[in-house]
Amino acid sequence: MQLTAKPSLPNALLISISTPQFKGDEATESLAELARLVTTLGFKVVGTQSQKQSSTQKVNVLGSGKLAEIAHLTGNKGMVEDEQEDGLLDEDSLTEMSSEIPSNDLDFVCADVVVFDCDLTPSQLRNVENQLGVEVFDRTGIIIEIFSRHARTKTAKLQVEIARLNYVAPRLRETSTGDKERQMGKGAGETTLELNRRKVRDQLAELKRELISVQDVMMDRRTQRSELFSVALIGYTNAGKSSMMRAITGSDVEGENKLFATLDTTVRALYPITQPRILVSDTVGFIKKLPHDLVASFHSTLAEAHDASLLLYVVDASDPSFRSQLEVVHKVLAEVGVEGSKKLLVLNKSDQLSTEQQQSLMDEFPDAMMTSTRNPDDISKLHKYIIGIAQEDMIEEEIVIPYTAKGIVGEIRSSMSVVKEEYEYSHIKLTVRSSAIDLERLKKRMLNL
């Protein structure tokens, strides 16, 4: 099932179900985030509706009265009867309902798509679609579609397609043509639905085999880089990680003011270039209520973070909800088993805060670093911090290199930091800083000269 934003039908109505476990500010923030997700897909959010329920697991996820209200906002295209004629939807309730729509003309904001800020079972989704007569999607469907559009590398595409097929499989429906063929004896014992489900199972099996093969190649590449000090930028989506990546590596990493503008993990060298080089990876952003299948895909998407020497937790300090977003990051990282030996909380987008707000946050998070990617001094400060942490694990040692050892000095300069150099009659004496592994490798080579 693919979600396609039609230029002529871009209007989306968002539905929030408030339960005893999910209510208040949490529900409000989640609905606002859903609006950003839907906007990322190219739809125009024309209004929101909410209803209190004891659970989202009921056969009918909405009450009949609320369903009738929403039917008016979708043009009464489904099977819901016009209950206004029966006195079930009076003028006062209609006015209250339309107050959530940013327009005085109800026809102008007629919704073409309805999106629920929760997961719907296949039967719930079918029931609501039949009642409203428009496309209905849940939060998981929206997130998976965004991931599908933003995946660029083969690994990410495979991971997202597996998640999409797992989502689609239980929502496949029998076609009327398939039913008729079965009834007339024209089929081979399987309905169209059964054939489609078998096809999806075969696709999933093939995709999983291909993913294992691709991941083996990625593992080899990470092993080759494992001896270098590495930094992983992690955090909530739209926290400014890509802008920070661009600032500290001088790269052209994509960055937009949209959720999941970056999905694939990108690795670049810290700039200005250091010796030895320091690698920086920009990982996929996190989000609340991330679909289970996509959490599983994060295992390899976040593989760079698994091996990182330093984790930078980037948050949008100007977002009042960044604390709860940070909790989501910690939770997902725990689920995928990412643990870094060193961590730094980076309070990003400080240029959007007042001096008083900045001071308050630093009092609350004394070990954090306040930054703005638009401030060169802040980027320089972060650059120096990263180098300082990297050098903590380095060893300083004196190396004597005879003039007859060709090429050794060049190799040392390209992979180690030369602190001091002295030229004697028969040799060069270099004081270098490097990792224990590189120093041991150099010593073994010197013995074989």
UniProtKB/TrEMBL annotation:
The cofactor required is: Mg(2+)
Q: Which PANTHER family match?
A: GTP-BINDING PROTEIN 6-RELATED, GTP-BINDING PROTEIN HFLX
Protein keywords? Coiled coil, Cytoplasm, GTP-binding, Magnesium, Metal-binding, Nucleotide-binding
Coiled-coil region: 190-217
Q: Which residues bind GTP?
A: 235-242, 260-264, 282-285, 348-351, 372-374
Q: What is this protein called?
A: GTPase HflX
The primary location reported for this protein is cytoplasm
Q: Which PROSITE patterns match?
A: G_HFLX
Give the family this protein belongs to, as stated in its UniProt record.
Belongs to the TRAFAC class OBG-HflX-like GTPase superfamily. HflX GTPase family.
Per the UniProt record, the source organism is Pseudoalteromonas fuliginea
Q: Taking every annotated instance into account, which residue ranges of this chain make up the domain Hflx-type G? A: 229-394
Subunit structure and binding partners? Monomer. Associates with the 50S ribosomal subunit.
Q: Which GO terms describe its cellular component?
A: cytoplasm
CDD domains assigned to the protein according to its UniProt record, in alphabetical order: HflX
UniProt function note: GTPase that associates with the 50S ribosomal subunit and may have a role during protein synthesis or ribosome biogenesis.
Highest taxon, organism lineage: Bacteria
Xref: Pfam families: GTP-bdg_M (PF16360), GTP-bdg_N (PF13167), MMR_HSR1 (PF01926)
**GO molecular-function terms, A-Z:** GTP binding; GTPase activity; metal ion binding; ribosome binding
**Is Protein transport given among the entry's keywords?**
no
Q: Where in the cell is it found?
A: Cytoplasm
Annotated Mg(2+) binding lies at S242, T262
Q: What gene name is given for the protein in this entry?
A: hflX
